[in-house]
Amino acid sequence: MLKYELLPEQLLREGTLVEESIFAPIPLPEKYFVGPHDAAYWQRLQHGQLTRHEERATGFPWSEQLVQREVTILGGTVQCAKLALHTGVALNVAGGTHHAFADRGEGFCLLNDQAVAAHYLLHHEGVGRVLIVDLDVHQGNGTAALFAHEPRVFTFSMHGARNYPARKEHSDLDLPLPDGTDDTTYLKLLADTLPRLLDAFQPHFVFYLSGVDVLATDKLGKLALTREGCRQRDRLVLELCHRHRLPVVVCMGGGYSERIADIVEAHANTFRVAQELWF
C-alpha cells in the first residue's frame, strides 16, 4: 500500500524521525512462528497449496512475494519488541495482521505479527504477561482465538459492532461500538476501561494496534472519529504505557480513507505522540 512509503517520507521530512531511527526488518525464521501458527498451515502457505476457498478468505492471490512480505512483517514486529524492551517504545509502519488464525488467514492477514511477537517475548525474553490493545475498527478475531487459552496474554478489542468479521471471536475483553460512535463517546469509554485493565492484569509488555480506520472519513469503518480524536486516542494509550513504564510496540493496522493524506496524517500523529513522550 502507498501509505507504507509515504508515512516514513513524511516523518523524515518534518523531522519527527531521522534516518538513524528507521530500520529495515528482516524475515523472521520459521522456528519463531511455527508454534503460534500450525506447521501444516505454514507448509501449505509457503508452497502455494491453499485451497481456493482459503485463498479467497485472505483477500490476496497467492505469490512467493506475498509470503515473503508476511514473514518480513513478522520480523519487523519481533524486532520492534526486542527494541522496546530497551527503549520503551518501537513502532512498525506495517503490521497489525490480527485476522490471521493459527491455521488460516483471513481479511488480508496471513500470519499474525503481534501474536507471534507476544509468543516470542513469553518464550525467549522472559516476559511474564502481555496485554494486546487492539483499537483497529475491526475485531482482532485471529488474535483472540490464538490466545483463548493463554492466561499470560490478555486480549482487548474495541471495535465496530456491525463491522467485519461477521462472526466475532471472544477476546478477554470486547467492547463493540455502534455505528457513528464519535470522539467523546469513544474516548470516554477507552479512558474508563484501559487504566482499570492495567491495574487488574498488571502486564509487563503492551502491543497496541492503532488502526486509523476508526476515522469518519474511512470507507470501511462506520465510526465517526475525527483526526484529532484519533490522536487523543493514541495519546491516551501511549501516556498510560509511558506512565507505567511499560514497553510498548505499536503497529499501524488499517486505514481506508478516500484521501491518502488523511490516512498518512493520522498514522503520523501516532509517531509524533510517541516521539514526544519517549524522546
From TrEMBL:
<feature type="domain" description="Histone deacetylase">
    <location>
        <begin position="6"/>
        <end position="268"/>
    </location>
</feature>
<dbReference type="GO" id="GO:0004407">
    <property type="term" value="F:histone deacetylase activity"/>
</dbReference>
<dbReference type="InterPro" id="IPR037138">
    <property type="entry name" value="His_deacetylse_dom_sf"/>
</dbReference>
<keyword id="KW-0378">Hydrolase</keyword>
<dbReference type="GO" id="GO:0016787">
    <property type="term" value="F:hydrolase activity"/>
</dbReference>
<dbReference type="InterPro" id="IPR023801">
    <property type="entry name" value="His_deacetylse_dom"/>
</dbReference>
<dbReference type="GO" id="GO:0040029">
    <property type="term" value="P:epigenetic regulation of gene expression"/>
</dbReference>
<comment type="similarity">
    <text>Belongs to the histone deacetylase family.</text>
</comment>
<dbReference type="InterPro" id="IPR023696">
    <property type="entry name" value="Ureohydrolase_dom_sf"/>
</dbReference>
<dbReference type="InterPro" id="IPR044150">
    <property type="entry name" value="HDAC_classIV"/>
</dbReference>
<dbReference type="Pfam" id="PF00850">
    <property type="entry name" value="Hist_deacetyl"/>
</dbReference>
<protein>
    <submittedName>
        <fullName>Histone deacetylase</fullName>
    </submittedName>
</protein>
<dbReference type="InterPro" id="IPR000286">
    <property type="entry name" value="HDACs"/>
</dbReference>
